[in-house]
What we know:
With 205 residues, this protein is α+β, with helices and mostly antiparallel strands. It is 23% helix and 36% strand.
Amino acid sequence: MNQTAKTYIDLFRSVKIASASTVDSAGHPQSRIINIMIANDEGMVIVTSRGKPFWKQLMDTGEIALSAMCPDCQSLKFTGKIRRLEEHKKWVDAVFEQNPGMNEVYPGESRYALDAFLIYEGTGEWFDLLHYPISRERFAYGGAVLEDVGFRIEESCIGCNRCAEVCPQKCIVPGAPYQITWKHCLQCGLCAENCPAGAITRLHP
């Protein structure tokens, strides 16, 4: 795991509380609040009991999306792949060692109703809304590849400056074509909506 990814995985762990989203068997989105129990060089570890719909959704899809809010109005989001860890009791014990408050919820041997899952691959983004201009940084680990997102100004740009005028973060600079400074872009789409040449395209996804 590179240092950028490690920084934000550790931040997920320090924030601890995150919203975790999955898809159920009917294709409907489901969300709940979870704790990031362990962060290491392999990814993030969470637990859930085998009786919960969350457990079944993780087992069925092998996918998860996370979002969290840091103390200074900075958000974290992540989309990735997840698998149940073998050596079941070893990992549950490790979680309880690092998170002793879990003993109040699952006292004694009842802890082994839980399974530990490793979020072993994926991509994420840190987004700072507190400072002007806003800033964002993306990260990936486990072999996941970062794809271009947001908006791009194409060669058909006519240099009219309309996109720069409407940009709330003033992150578009003149050129041939004009350029969007991605790390400060809100991805609001006002530039694309106001481009008379239709030269601004939305990127994946």
